[in-house]
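We treat protein structure as text, and this decision shapes the records that our systems exchange. Because each token names a local backbone shape, the row as a whole describes the fold. An entry from our holdings is shown next, in its original layout:
>
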Amino acid sequence: MNFLRSTWCPVFLGIITTVLILTSLLPAAQKNVLINSYTNQYTEGEEWIPPEEKEVPYDSNGDLIRYGKELIVNTSKYLGPQGLVAHISNGMNCQNCHLDAGTKNFAIPLSAVAANFPKWLDRSERTQSVESRVNDCLQRSLNGKPLDSLNYEMRAFVAYLNWLGHEVPKGVKPKGSGIQSLPFLNRAGDAAQGKVVYEKDCSRCHGVNGNGVLSPDKMTYVYPPLWGQNSYNVNATLYRIMPLASFIKANMPFDKTGSVFLTDAEAWDVSAYIISQQRPGTHFTMDWPNPSKKPLDYAYGPYADEFSELQHKYGPFEPIKNAKASSESVKPNQRTTGLK
């Protein structure tokens, strides 16, 4: 027995050593693409730099990531009214809101999606998965129908989102994610003045009637419609004036160069004009079951305050904000027992 042990021990050690050496020699390309990695590259407030597409691996997962990007850029080609895969959306593309395939900071980039979902949403009073968030966009911004969570296109969407944000640690939102808020006006947004701004700075791309410009193949939009039956519906985030004004201020007009675009007042007013126009959809009554958590600019009551739907839609918002802050500052022993 001692003889056997003395004979086999070196053999086992040799096998283990060989395995370790072979592992270390595996191609680097198989190691350097981490999906959902928890690196410390980005911290809260540090500006995000999107990964380069050349980093996507050349395997089945890489194919899924590349298809996911294609779906973001050309959603309507695959899922629009004449889509190659399904007919479940309105002809707009995800990229119409998430500019440059979701890689442009302060243009609703997709940098922090993987790091922050699943996530509790006050809007639905439940924890939302990445798949559910994608379907929210399909049903609201693209005025369409949801995909099954195991659908190939859904898997591609998620693969791209995971890859795009794979260097962002869990729970972190880098600088540039979301939309940079604008200071409030001391008045309501003025739709009449906004029409002047729209005709001067926006109509050359989005059309005098806000209908957008279709591509030559009629399958998608070069410039998306901002209202009307083919635009986003009344449940989309950009139907609210605060995010819309912030998005426009940071990114529009699309064909201008330099750092100065519209003034803050122009951004507020043109947003008021855009949301004053007709668009599809009936608001989702299941949204915001707790009225006290509704955004200041949510256009549908009931509210936990005495301000009108008109003021919640167009402003001014400072009085609403102050009233909410005053309500939330009430001492706990002054609150009604059991309320949260």
In short: The first helix runs from residue 2 to 24. The chain has two domains: 53-164, 191-328.
